[in-house]
Design brief:
Layout lengths: L21 E2 L5 E5 L7 E4 L9 E9 L6 E7 L7 E7 L2 E6 L2 E6 L8 E8 L4 E6 L2 E2 L3 E2 L11 E4 L18 E9 L5 H8 L14 E6 L2 E5 L8
Antiparallel strand pairs: 1-15, 2-14, 2-16, 3-13, 3-15, 4-9, 4-14, 5-6, 5-13, 6-7, 7-8, 9-10, 10-11, 10-12
Amino acid sequence: EDSETVREGCGTPQPSTTSPLLSPDLYRKVFVFRKDPSDAYVVLRARLEQPLHNFTVCLRSYTDLSRPHSLFSYATKAQDNEILLFKPKPEEYRFYVGGKFVTFRVPESRRDWEHVCASWESATGIAEFWLNGKPWPRKGLQRGYTVGATAAILLGQEQDSFGGGFDLYNSFSGELTDVYLWDTGLSPDKMRAAFLSLRLPPALLAWNSLSYEVKGDVVVKPRLREALRA
C-alpha cells in the first residue's frame, strides 16, 4: 500500500540468512535523495554467483544537478570502479568497466526523466549505451576483462574504496527508479522494453523485487508523473 512506511536502514546487524530489506512493492515508486550534496546512499543486494563476462545495467533518473554525480557504483576490493555509471556534466555520461571508461556525449537534459542502459561484453570489449530507448555509437572497452563477483553495489554515491570513500560532491540528488542489472547483454528489443517498462528477462537486480538497504536521507515515494517517453 502507498501508506505503508518503508523501514530505513539504521546500521543494525542483520542475520546473514536474510536480506536486509526485500521490497516487492517498488512498482511506480522512486528513491528520493533529498539533500545536495548528500552523504546518503542505497545498498543493493544481488545474488552474484560468479564473475561477469557480460552485463547490462539500466536505470531511470530525474535531477536538476549540473555538477558531477554518480548513478550506479559497483566496487570490488580489487577495483573501486568495477562498474560505474557517472555523469560528470549535463551533456556527458561516463561508463566504467574495471577502472577504464568511455564517454558518451548526449544532448543537455531538458530537466526530465532520463533512462539509460549500458552493456558490455568481454569477448569483444564492446560497450553499448542507450539513452531514452535509443542507441549511441558503440565503443571499445576492456576486451578480455572479467568483472569480479564479490561486490558492493550502491546508488547515490561513487565508491573510492570498497563500500566507502565517498566524495559528497559526486553524490546524487534527485529521484532514481527502474534499476536493473543483468549478467548478459540485452538485445535491442529488450533495451527498448526496459525504456518502456515492459516485461523484462530475469535479472540479478530487478526493481520490482529489489533487496536493498537505505543509508541516510533517502525516502521511497510514489512517482509524481509517468516517466516514459522522456
